[in-house]
Amino acid sequence: MKKKLLTLGLLSLVTIGLVACGSSKEGDKKADSGKKSDNKTIVVGASPTPHAEILEQAKPLLKEKGYDLDIKVFNDYILPNKALAEKELDANYFQHIPYFNQEVKEKGYDFTNAGAVHLEKMAFYSQKIKDIKELPEGATIITSNSNTDWGRIITILQDADLVKVKKGTDLTTATFDDIEENPKKLKFKHDIDPAILATAYQNKEGDMVAINANFAEGIGLNPEKDGLLVEKDNSPYANIIVVRTEDKDSAKTKALVEALHDEKIKKFVDEKWKGTIKIVD
């Protein structure tokens, strides 16, 4: 009798084990199914302004295409590319072309520029002077520590006849060492993170601060209205959608880029930013 009971017990354990295995497989199938449903969610990393705001307007457009848009906001320029490389994002939207090119070159990211979306103007702001003609000799100019912004900053200053670079210098890659003429003996402080430049302005640091439109917007500054010097419309610093190269032709990427170039997005940007931020055709 004991042998029979033992045999029955073993059979029961085996049966339970088989059922458990079967349940595990069913659970795996459900998990896999859940992962597949995630293919209808596009996760995009973005700067708060204007990128995340523009993306918010794209949500209903993407919904019409069958996608949910999950926006992850970043307040720095390092983590969005890192998160994309680690597959925490499907795309990111925060950087201009020169910055993207440098990141790929220096860090070896296997990324692709999926298309330009908008241009946001950089401008110089001051709490100490009201007109560029008042800029004193030896003035301190505070700029970004991102060397991909330096050529942009130098171009604005050169257009205003405040500096002149060496002949043959490529302005998109120019550094402060390329400045050949500096008649006002301007001093450049370029060790501040781009996100902190607005704070430097609020703290009345330096004589002028170069701030990109997304950060200027955050403290209520408008380049055309408040800037002493403003970037020209033909700037090559368009902000782009970046994806991993393996996803450059994916349905998600195509849907995202198309939505961001919809006429409704263009109208929203034109009405909100009055031309200081423009959708690129």
TrEMBL record:
InterPro entries: Lipoprotein_NlpA (IPR004872). It is a lipid-anchor. Residues 1-20 form the signal peptide. A lipid is attached at C21 (S-diacylglycerol cysteine). It comes from the Bacteria. It is found in: Membrane. SUPFAM superfamilies: Periplasmic binding protein-like II. Keywords: Lipoprotein, Membrane, Palmitate, Signal. GO terms for cellular component: membrane. Belongs to the nlpA lipoprotein family. This is Lipoprotein. It comes from Vagococcus vulneris.
